[in-house]
């Protein structure tokens, strides 16, 4: 039987297989506790009439309107828009001397 030299990928394939099948490298939550404000123990059940705090990402309207650290970005964006606007005006309305002579004749 022929024997081939080790390629060095055995350890990588073993660790990838363990990670894919969630044998290693998985974060697990051990103990979760929750309770109402002012109480120490969790109730047996919550009803829809009780106040609960939801954890969710901010909506697009809840962020700051203008971020101070982004002013260089704002400046560069508006200067580029102004440059494109001026370039398009010049490009559309510029005429060479030959074109003006031909039209005037």
Short synopsis of the structure:
With 105 residues, the chain is mainly α. Helix content is 40%, strand content 0%. It has a domain at 68-105.
Give the key terms.
flat, mainly alpha, 3 helices, 40% helix, 105 residues
Q: Can you give a write-up of this model?
A:
This protein has about 100 residues and is mostly helical. The chain has a domain at about 70-105. It is about 40% helix and about 0% strand. It contains 3 helices and no strands. The protein has helices at about 10-20, 70-95, 95-105. The radius of gyration is 34 Å and the shape is flat. The termini are far apart. The mean pLDDT is about 85. InterPro entries: DDOST_48_kDa_subunit, OST48_MD. Pfam families: OST48_MD. This is OST48 middle domain-containing protein. Keywords: Membrane, Transmembrane, Transmembrane helix.
Biggest beta sheet summary: none
Radius of gyration: 34 Å
Which structural class fits the helix and strand makeup?
mainly alpha
Overall pLDDT, averaged? 84
Order of helices and strands: HHH
Helix content: 40-55%
CA(first)-CA(last) distance: 95 Å
Shape: flat
Uncertain regions spanning at least 5 consecutive residues: none
Helix tally equals 3
Classify the beta-strand content into a percent band: under 5%
Secondary-structure topology with pairs:
Layout lengths: L9 H11 L50 H23 L3 H8 L1
């Amino acid at each position: 039987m022929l024997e081939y030299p080790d390629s060095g990928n055995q350890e990588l394939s073993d660790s990838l297989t363990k990670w894919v099948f969630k044998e290693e490298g998985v974060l697990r939550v051990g103990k979760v506790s929750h309770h109402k404000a002012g109480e120490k123990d969790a109730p047996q059940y919550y009803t829809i009439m009780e106040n609960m705090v939801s954890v969710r990402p901010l909506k697009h309207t809840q962020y700051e309107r203008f971020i101070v650290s982004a002013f260089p970005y704002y400046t560069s964006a508006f200067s580029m828009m102004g440059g494109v606007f001026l370039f398009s005006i010049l490009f559309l309305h510029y005429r060479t001397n030959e074109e003006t002579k031909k039209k005037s004749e």
